[in-house]
Amino acid sequence: MNYADFRHLTFESKPNGVLLVTINRPEVLNAANARLHWEFTQIWPVVDADPKTRVVVVTGAGKAFSAGGDLSLVEDMAGNPDALTRTMREASDLVYNMINLDKPVVSAINGVAVGAGLVVALLADVSIISETARFTDGHTRLGVAAGDHAAIIWPLLCGMAKAKYYLLTADFIDGHEAERIGLVTMCVPPDQVVPKALDVADRLARGSQISIQWTKRALNNWLRQAGPIFDQSLALEMLSFSYPDVREGVKAIREKRTPAFPSAK
Question: pLDDT class for 176, splitting at 50, 70, 90?
């Protein structure tokens, strides 16, 4: 692939080898449909092969960073082994492709972040969040295990006690709290999110590329050694889709009510 092949990601070259990537489905708060979910996995090898790009900044168009997955995508997965297999492969590729990219990634979390978008936001090497942004790993609210990325990185970022609380409850976290507990690098006013991310990216792009990239490579071994933990969480998430809780979770979200999960009766 090359940059022209992407439908839901746009690209803007900045000075010194900084590439601004924008998640571009603002009409649905940049929610990930099947195509965007796949594009999230493919962008990192393309960046890796691009000799002009040194650092990537990722943000969302409009008010959101990425508001999770389309519910139609979730419904397609429930009881559909082929869709589950495809999604499991893509979810794994997204995490490992980001981990294995030596070039730094900076996320500019300008608004709500859920699902695959949250993976990109928190697996970035530097994460800048708006004071008004909120995010959640909403898996348990949907009725499935927290698979995407949380098991591999949340305990490292914020500790096991906070990770367990937010992953088990699926409570939303605002920018200030995310910075306080260490889930993100820093929290800034909304109008400073992208400028601050670009400033950090420019500093990295003007630094020693070998030393920066190899430092990232070494640090990411903390994530690589947690790979089996992530792999099991992802497998359990996919297994969750064979149970009726997920259908009730989707229905409750559509109806804007508290779910009544069959497994809790």
Answer: very high
